[in-house]
């Protein structure tokens, strides 16, 4: 089943056209990897899906983005609800200067969840889904800022999960992490795919090859090609994709 459908989408920051007539579909419960060199439009594409680009003055989108059959570019779309359903995790982890528990309970409280039992269950769910529960269960009331960088990033993913999104948007989530932390996050993504649809923007082509079901290659604001990851990495249809994957540029 198709979860997100992008039709003829272009995005502008002022007069600059950053995305150019993008057409693609994201299937339910898949990991879609998005690769391409710096400046190719990957992050702009990701942020267009939950309209975070709207926060930039002079930003505008042309075309249609459907999430579960509803055009989220239309006026009147609830951005609070949209961003809850399409949770975003950024490259640099930004835990709140609060306890581990409060980092995870903060969002649900804002969303109206009340009662210690419900909040405890959400906190544990987020931590278990990101393989953090065993590591931090005895220090939930210590500062999240004391966690390692990799743990902080998994905490940020867990924080998104406590809001029970439908989609997880990841913008280079392991770019500053060591190989062991990267492996733990990739393992978590494989588990999360059972319940969530994941879009992973990454500058690490090997990471896309390891965890993505399908891969999209962006270049200069255009979608060059998209397809099953194995095919993209072994028999790409476009020479530019092969050149990028083989390291000839980028």
Short characterization:
By secondary structure, the protein is of the alpha/beta class. Helices cover 36% and strands 27% of the residues. The protein has helices at 42-49, 79-85, 100-110, 116-129, 133-136, 149-161, 179-192, 205-211, 229-234, 239-245, and strands at residues 2-13, 16-27, 31-35, 59-67, 70-71, 86-89, 167-171, 197-201, 214-219, 222-228.
Structure write-up:
The protein has 250 residues and is of the alpha/beta class. The protein has one domain: Rossmann fold, CATH 3.40.50. It is 36% helix and 27% strand. It has ten helices and ten strands. It has helices at residues 42-49, 79-85, 100-110, 116-129, 133-136, 149-161, 179-192, 205-211, 229-234, 239-245; strands at residues 2-13, 16-27, 31-35, 59-67, 70-71, 86-89, 167-171, 197-201, 214-219, 222-228. The protein has a six-stranded mixed β-sheet, with helices on both faces. Strands 2-1-4-5 form a four-stranded antiparallel β-sheet, with helices on one face. A hairpin with a 2-residue loop joins strand 4 and strand 5 (70-71). Helix 3 (100-110) crosses helix 4 (116-129), helix 3 runs parallel beside helix 6 (149-161) and helix 6 (149-161) runs parallel beside helix 7.
